[in-house]
Task: inverse folding
């Protein structure tokens, strides 16, 4: 079967999530699963196929929520997302829902060895370059995210000049786009890849000084 070219996120995909939010039941899901498959999953698969050469294989997130440890037992996610990891270690993320589109890139959560390398690099001679990279992407319209400690990490002074960055346990940049007509056209591909490329100074620093975890999977998390 020929590969389907990405032509945008169909309007029906947003309508599906609007209706799912209003009725997050299995009855609704079973009755509209075909709409999810053709209007949500297939366009995301097509998007991933067209970005794979530059950013790596794209993996779609499952539409089901993990409710084992949550008070909210709603079984289905009201958004669709996908992620890929570049050769250097940066993860690239895209998500859409009724509120629009979100693109992110970085290291969502550092493994222990990554966290050690990150803090040493931030505090060391390469730290000023990262401060400059963060300032550059913020000026370009990105927001900084990632879990961070409320105080200084153990062993680091609270008055360290780069303490804001040192407190991070993961760090990434992101850009949100509100609902717009271009989301349902091929222009969405350019916006997503453009956002990911726009974070290059930030992501390149992380890939150079942090990179992928070298721990076995069972130890990394």
Result:
């Amino acid at each position: 079967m020929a590969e389907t070219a990405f032509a945008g996120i169909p309007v029906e995909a947003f309508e599906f999530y609007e209706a799912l939010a209003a009725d997050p039941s299995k009855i609704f899901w079973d009755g509209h699963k075909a709409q999810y498959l053709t209007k949500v999953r297939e366009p995301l698969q097509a998007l991933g196929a067209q970005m794979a050469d530059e950013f790596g294989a794209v993996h779609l997130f499952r539409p089901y929520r993990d409710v084992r440890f949550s008070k909210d037992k709603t079984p289905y996610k009201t958004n669709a997302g996908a992620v890929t990891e570049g050769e250097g270690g940066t993860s690239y993320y895209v998500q859409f829902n009724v509120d629009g589109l979100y693109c992110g890139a970085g290291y969502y959560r550092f493994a222990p060895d990554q966290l050690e390398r990150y803090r040493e690099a931030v505090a060391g001679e390469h730290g000023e370059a990262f401060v400059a990279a963060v300032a550059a992407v913020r000026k370009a319209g990105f927001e900084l995210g990632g879990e961070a400690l409320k105080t200084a990490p153990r062993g680091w002074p609270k008055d360290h000049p780069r303490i804001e960055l040192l407190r991070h346990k993961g760090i990434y940049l992101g850009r949100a786009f509100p609902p717009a007509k271009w989301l349902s056209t091929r222009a969405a591909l350019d916006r997503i890849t453009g956002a990911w490329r726009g974070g290059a100074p930030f992501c390149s620093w992380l890939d150079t000084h942090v990179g992928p975890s070298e721990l076995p999977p069972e130890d990394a998390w």
User: Anything to note?
Assistant: The helical segments are 11-22, 26-55, 112-123, 127-139, 163-166, 187-198, 200-209, 217-220. The first strand starts at residue 59 and ends at 60. The chain is about 45% helix and 15% strand.
